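Justification of resources, computational component.

The compute hours requested in this renewal are based largely on the per-chain cost of generating structure records like the one below. Each record pairs the submitted sequence with a full structure-token output. That output is archived, and it is also reused by downstream analysis tasks.
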Amino acid sequence: MHVAGTPIALSDRDLRTMVSITEETDHAATEPGVRLPWSVLHRIKDLLGCDELTCHDLEAARRRISFAQTTADGCDDLDLRSGGATEPADQPFWATYWSGSCSYPDRTGDLRSVVTPYDFASERQWRESPAYREYFGPLGTKHTILLTLPDRPGRTVRLVAFRDSGPRFSERDRAVLTLLRPHVYAAYLQLARRRNGEPNLTDRQWQLLQLVALGHTNARIARQLGVSEGTVRKHMENIHARLGVSSRAAALARAFPERFAVAWRG
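The structure output for this chain reads:
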């Protein structure tokens, strides 16, 4: 595999573990409110060799986090915040947010890249940055790596790994998260559908709707799926009929309510 043009070697153990993670995302049992299966978070945490792994949403413009699912030292914690209220402990995070790597997805619109603070600063600069001095340093965190997933407009979902000691996250770690990203996203969407009552669609129809959600045109979807544009249009007609809607926006709001319902309702 290549990351940023650099060849990355993954071991057979890495690949076997990643395959098992992708399989778990399809049928892992979960408790109410969970955004990703705990078993998946545990396996990713072990694969990265990090001290803590957290999955949380983030609305930068409103300084809001409405859920945080964290596993660390064998302890699982699910924090569901009523109304997305800002916690006092979050104040230093928000105060330094735009000066650190956490804001990269918001500043650039790039939700695909897996990033670390060292993509933007030397280790010395990171240690001297407001984000480290006022937030991460006092928490005992030395190294982080960030994976971002799209959500409804203005909100993203983050998977963040933390190390309190030892080496910084490597290109191998970045490669692991890059390869796992589509499977983590699929698991997140799957659980969102379960929480909101999953519409009765075929696997192909879900696949097509996910491409629509990414903003792809019928022509681009047809090329990606290896079918004609007419077939894509027919799939969309069938999707509209099953969901009882008459537009793409309404179909997305019905299929992915956490991501699109607010925008669709205006």
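Strands lie at 2-3, 6-7, 52-58, 67-72, 75-80, 143-150, 156-163. The first helix runs from residue 12 to 27.
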